[in-house]
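Work package 3, deliverable 3.1, input record:
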Amino acid sequence: MFFILGATGYLGSYFVKYLRQEGEDVFGLSRTEIDYTDVGSLISILRRKKPKFLINAAGYTGKPNVDACESDKAECLFGNAVFPGRIRTACEEVGIPWGHVSSGCIYSDRKSNGEGWSENDEPNFSFRNGPCSFYSGTKALGEEILKDAKDCYIWRLRIPFNEEKSPRNYLQKLLNYSSLLEAENSISHIDDYINSCLSSFTQECEPGIYNLTNSGSIRTRQVVEWMKEEGVTDKEFNFFENEEDFMAKAAITPRSNCVMDTSKAERNGIALRPVEEAVRDSLRKMREQVLA
Amino acid sequence: MFFILGATGYLGSYFVKYLRQEGEDVFGLSRTEIDYTDVGSLISILRRKKPKFLINAAGYTGKPNVDACESDKAECLFGNAVFPGRIRTACEEVGIPWGHVSSGCIYSDRKSNGEGWSENDEPNFSFRNGPCSFYSGTKALGEEILKDAKDCYIWRLRIPFNEEKSPRNYLQKLLNYSSLLEAENSISHIDDYINSCLSSFTQECEPGIYNLTNSGSIRTRQVVEWMKEEGVTDKEFNFFENEEDFMAKAAITPRSNCVMDTSKAERNGIALRPVEEAVRDSLRKMREQVLA
């Protein structure tokens, strides 16, 4: 049985859906049901339920966006750094392998040599290596707290997208925002991401950090171009002049825009599709929904 | 009535003792009695007890020393950063003024102009401005989370000492350690500190950060000299060659050694005694205990 924390959240609900489709037994816990953030409570549920794997899809992301983390720092820090540490304690105590939904948003830009950031690189958009958003700082601390954790997968997601009308879907966000920021990013197709996460466990990859973004990177202007090509919209998109203009007009805290190196996932046979293929696939499905 | 969190801890028990001596009504909560770390629970106790002031003397310091924080990062982060944020939420909700035991250990050395660190200076021994110990990183994040908190005093302590035989007492530590590190530090006499903390509230000082160390600074060699002069010991003290030698032989994480600017406390009439006076006073009492 798979044990999912944050089962009613954005990512968690996709994990639940995917696993149920695969015929797996899923026990989904949401924090409104039980305070699983207490190590003792978590240990006793794990002892009772004896899951073969635990997934931590609970986290504090800020709604509607990362700016909200700046005004609820304590809970952001709790959800993204303290709580993963408590799960580690509980899972190591009971002897349960697990995976943690982490984020590539602890990096900015590319490495100075032009390459994407690999799993071995120190975060450069974190408290220890700023500037950073408070959100990114807490996600980097979360990874620090999980360093050398036993039987723990750290699955780095970035900017999730698919074809659905959720306000959390990157492609939907692009359609909703009045102005866009031109930036280069690695991004993660949700189904591809979930599939890779679970494959890391089922294919017995070595526990540790994995960058799970679609291979390659996108630029915002390129994506809106694809949107038009795929017939999703004929909207004229506005762009901020630059990052300063974006920060001045639309943001409280800086965003991470970065490119990830996905070669470790490729070497381990759990790579996500090339990004253009995944984006166009989602855009075609969005188009079908509009026509339907 | 004064409401004290962490009432059975090292500092907390002195707060309780001092307030009771002053004839104040004290409600001391220890975490073993009730999980006051939950905002909802804390709010309801505060509504029921209606204290005139809350003191947070709970924190994660690491036992026997700060190295222990490196191996329990999640709880260190929780106790020193998340929990103060939750107290803030509860106290602001119920409308209760409060004080937080913070630390000067978020600084290293002196300012580049030779002055001590004032309340307006950004920490330079923190996650955002490293290197730092994990402990110091969490204390600095705690202050960040309390920034602009309503009716909140942030009382910065450093290296507490008095005449008692506690292993937490700096003067006792000097006697117990096999080798010492020569360093310059501001330090806090516990009674002086507690007295200044409570005065900040009773004298209606403006809420905010206060450096509450005895004025001036000490060097380790000077203190052991005073120990001999006051007849506390005739022990020959060994010193590490330098900080590198100390780190290699006796420590896991770097220590904060720093000098604080105490002029804000002086301007507000809540200053602690000059450091030599306070140290010699404690040493004389230690000597009396030996003779008794």
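The mean pLDDT of chain B is 95.
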